[in-house]
Structures are given as structure tokens and as C-alpha cells.
Design a protein that fits this description.
By secondary structure, this protein is an all-alpha fold. Helix content is 65%, strand content 0%. Keywords: Membrane, Transmembrane, Transmembrane helix.
Length: 106
């Protein structure tokens, strides 16, 4: 069975969004946004799983679900970067003399 052109375009766009999500994931992890990455992927997986009960052609529904889930993951990641100014959770330098960073004699 050959897929129609519009369906191939939907699959191509969702693949492009998935690649963007992987780049944004690496960026967020680099700035300490581990929780935002997890939230984005859980949200996308939930949206993808939510399409199981949608009636219709399974190939068409799964292509649109893949597009929607990838778009949602990218939106959550970009939203995190925009709202935090690119500094998702970069910790401040620890104050010397406190906690694990201290070099106090025992």
C-alpha cells in the first residue's frame, strides 16, 4: 500500500520535530533542566497514548498522533528555555565552608 503524499509530509514533519526535540533535550540537560526534559517526554508520551481510543484509520491516526506528540515535546522544551532565559536550573556556586564543598579538618 502506497501512502498518500500528505501523509508522507506529516511523517516527515514529525521526524523533523523529533530531531529538534533531541537537540533541545541535549541543550536542556547541559543547563540543568533534567526535570523539564522528563516532563516534556512524559507529556508527549501521554498525548501519544491518548490517541489509542480514537476511531478511524490506524495509520492516519498514528501519523497525526506522532506529529502532535513531537510538537508537544518541542513546545514544552522551548517553553522551558524561554521562561527560564536559557538557564533552566544552573546552580549557584556553593559558598566555601558549607556542605560537601568545605575542606574543614575532621
Amino acid at each position: 500500500m502506497l501512502l498518500p503524499g500528505w501523509l508522507m509530509a506529516v511523517l516527515a514533519l514529525s521526524s523533523l520535530l523529533l530531531m529538534a526535540a533531541h537537540v533541545l533535550q541535549a541543550l536542556l540537560v547541559a543547563v540543568g533542566g533534567h526535570r523539564a526534559v522528563a516532563l516534556a517526554w512524559i507529556t508527549g508520551a501521554g498525548a501519544l497514548a491518548g490517541t489509542i481510543l480514537v476511531p478511524g484509520d490506524p495509520i492516519v491516526i498514528s501519523a497525526w498522533a506522532q506529529l502532535g506528540a513531537c510538537a508537544l515535546v518541542v513546545a514544552v522544551m522551548v517553553g522551558t528555555l524561554v521562561t527560564t532565559g536559557g538557564r533552566a536550573a544552573v546552580p549557584e556556586r556553593p559558598t566555601p565552608g558549607y556542605g560537601a564543598w568545605s575542606r574543614r579538618p575532621l
